[in-house]
Amino acid sequence: MSKNATSSDVAGESVTLETGLEAFQSSPEFSGPVEGLDGHDCNDHFAHIYETREEKFEAAVPFVRHGLERGERIAYVVDQSTETEVRSTLRAAGIDVPAAVGSGALVFYTVDETYLRDGSFDPHEMIQFYADATAEATEEFEALRLVAEMSWIRDDGTTIEQLMEYESKINELFDHEDVLAICQYDRDLFDPELIQDVIRTHPHLIYDGAACHNFYYTPPEELFGDDAPVHENERMLRTLRERTTAKAELQARERFLKELYDVTADSDQSFEETVRRLLELGSERFGLEIGYFARTTTDETVEIVEAVGDHDRIATSVTDTLRDTYCEKLLAAPGRIAVTDAAEADWTADRAYEQFGLDAYFATTVHVSGAEYGTLCFASERPREEPYTETERTYLDLMGQWIESELERQQRETFLQESYQITADPTLTFETKLERLLDFGREWMGLEAAGVTHLPAWDDRFRNEFTIGYGDDADDESDVMWTDPGEGCFCREVIESDDPVGMADVRATEWEDDPIHREHGLSCYLGTKVMNGSTPYGTLWVGSTEPRDREFTDTERTFLELMGQWVSYEIEREHREQALEESNARLEQFAYAASHDLQEPLRMVSSYLRLIESQYGDALDGDGEEFLEFAVDGADRMREMIDGLLAYSRVETRGDPFEPVDLETVLEDVRQDLQLQIEDTNAEITAATLPRVKGDDNQLRQVVQNLLENAITYSGDSAPRIRIDANRRKQKWVISVRDNGIGIEPEEQDRIFDIFDRLHNREEYEGTGLGLALCQRIVERHDGEIWVESEPGNGSTFSFTLPAVADRD
Ligand code: ADP
């Protein structure tokens, strides 16, 4: 059969299901608790009682699909429906019918070929038919699965007794063979008596979309014979009682759940208060007057976190040694202890009994993130009469689980908070943060050591870059500990995996041969990959020389991964900064070379030009004078550019520390420097009251000066009208310089900030194309931005942001 054709369309069906029953459990069309009957393994024979055609196929389709998916043969006996009808229904449900029929996985039979093959119904013959068909099917397929329409019974002379005898025989046969079946009964077609018998003889019934655990099922021995009525009465009475008890249990459970919810859902309440209320509730419900939640610590003591009831040794905040306590008993076999009478449990000779005198004890262990945390206990100084019910057990477990999940949540929060406090501290260096983080991590997981390794690209050997808690002097071990990772497991496995890799106990695994274990004794280990951008950098790990008695939990893995991500991020940042610094250093070197090495020959050119001018000036004709002027001019311009470049390259490295700067004063100074230009061009400069900002006084002066100079220079024909404004935006000031000049084409507005980029030639406007590049670099050093808004012919507005001065400055 074709698996592809059938597996894709119905959600919730799985190919790993074991019995026919599970086809219904997992089918979205069905509901109801489907369980095997006590004492009857026969889950393989269903009666389906239906009223409509849709209902009939609602059960048959998932049953067939499931069988095909499991590689079984389906024998479909049609009577009421035609084969064509069944085929098209199966096809409409997405089953590849031609493929299934072609491979022999789906076979259609008529009633005349099966039930009535000898002309009338013969139970023995039919059982034989099943046995043969199953034998044949299982040669090639996993099992035989039968869907049978039972409508034929109506017209046949078959008696009810015959049929029922036959059905109960089937149960027997199906118990031992690889065969399962649905017999379909149309309720409208049959007498109520027959339907009643169908109900009695099938351990499982499908009715109205539910696969039912059939408590009306009557085993064959009860159905026939002289004792039948006695058996039946007893079964009915038992069922009655069971159902009533089940209902009462269910109600009790519901009430408990509601109470539990009420107590735990109050978010204003502290953890201790909630625990206290839980203890009160449990103590009342279980009829045990003492309740306590205790925390056990590694040094074999118990601390009672909260307690209710009146007992001189069991009270809130009391600390005791674990020895000879009831908790010790519980922790020796983690899970739940339910003792109603200490004497019956043979506890009365124990020291714990002597000390505490508790006769009833009902308790569960509490684990947090997989590690033992403590115990939740209820107890009484008197024995309890009744055994603990299932509901009470569930209730105790639920209380324990609530405490566990709450503590886990707290733990997660603390972890995140503490690690955040370390990593976000601006006063710490990366090394100190890393050390504290690793220290925190190993302690949190109860391990000795932690570290970061690096796998440099050039020699493919891991190096211990940073280690704590491992060996006396961690530094000494750098470079020597890690060998060729091709051999080892620890680092190699981690670097090759996207998820953290953990080994709680390396003994008896292939890790045991790793030199890191053999020579350095590391016996338990959890590591995560550290990346530098997209290249693997190394590993972040925690571990111990002692093996660990429990696996690493998901929480621990997640936290290590988070730490790894932080380290990756920092390493990447450091590398980026390093790269930037290097490029800055190169630029500055170049500028240094430019200023010193180029300025010298340039000076020579200039002085010789002046010499020519003074000594041979008279000998030059008009052209000669003009050429000389060009040469002098070129040399001047070159000096300007070199000076500008030098200033540009030094913005980061030679800037002054930031201090409060009064922009009013800055503007005043700039006005004075530009006085000549202002007068020459008749420029009018107005300004709003300017704020104090935080920055480098000299650099800010350069920015304002450049912008004003540009505003004057690119003013066009009319006299420059310039307006300076300042607007507060949260922690920043936006300073803008607006002019009424020539403006800038939109597509040019970005490139004017590039170094040496100009929109005009020197004949039109003087300039080096460095001014705005310098402004941008200065503003960026101040953590700000600079931009221009402009309409050609309609002036430009240059704006930039600067950090505001904090109020206390
Ligand atoms: P320059 O030394 O050429 O002025 P800048 O970096 O200061 O160099 O400016 C780059 C280019 O941006 C200028 O050449 C000019 O074309 C254009 N520009 C700068 N400021 C203005 C302005 N206020 N109005 C119009 N264009 C401007």
UniProtKB/TrEMBL annotation:
<dbReference type="InterPro" id="IPR036890">
    <property type="entry name" value="HATPase_C_sf"/>
</dbReference>
<dbReference type="GO" id="GO:0000155">
    <property type="term" value="F:phosphorelay sensor kinase activity"/>
</dbReference>
<dbReference type="Pfam" id="PF00512">
    <property type="entry name" value="HisKA"/>
</dbReference>
<keyword id="KW-0597">Phosphoprotein</keyword>
<dbReference type="InterPro" id="IPR003594">
    <property type="entry name" value="HATPase_dom"/>
</dbReference>
<keyword id="KW-0808">Transferase</keyword>
<keyword id="KW-0418">Kinase</keyword>
<dbReference type="Pfam" id="PF14417">
    <property type="entry name" value="MEDS"/>
</dbReference>
<protein>
    <recommendedName>
        <fullName>histidine kinase</fullName>
        <ecNumber>2.7.13.3</ecNumber>
    </recommendedName>
</protein>
<dbReference type="Pfam" id="PF13185">
    <property type="entry name" value="GAF_2"/>
</dbReference>
<dbReference type="InterPro" id="IPR052162">
    <property type="entry name" value="Sensor_kinase/Photoreceptor"/>
</dbReference>
<dbReference type="Pfam" id="PF02518">
    <property type="entry name" value="HATPase_c"/>
</dbReference>
<dbReference type="InterPro" id="IPR004358">
    <property type="entry name" value="Sig_transdc_His_kin-like_C"/>
</dbReference>
<dbReference type="InterPro" id="IPR025847">
    <property type="entry name" value="MEDS_domain"/>
</dbReference>
<dbReference type="InterPro" id="IPR003661">
    <property type="entry name" value="HisK_dim/P_dom"/>
</dbReference>
<dbReference type="InterPro" id="IPR029016">
    <property type="entry name" value="GAF-like_dom_sf"/>
</dbReference>
<dbReference type="InterPro" id="IPR036097">
    <property type="entry name" value="HisK_dim/P_sf"/>
</dbReference>
<dbReference type="InterPro" id="IPR003018">
    <property type="entry name" value="GAF"/>
</dbReference>
<dbReference type="InterPro" id="IPR005467">
    <property type="entry name" value="His_kinase_dom"/>
</dbReference>
<feature type="domain" description="Histidine kinase">
    <location>
        <begin position="593"/>
        <end position="806"/>
    </location>
</feature>
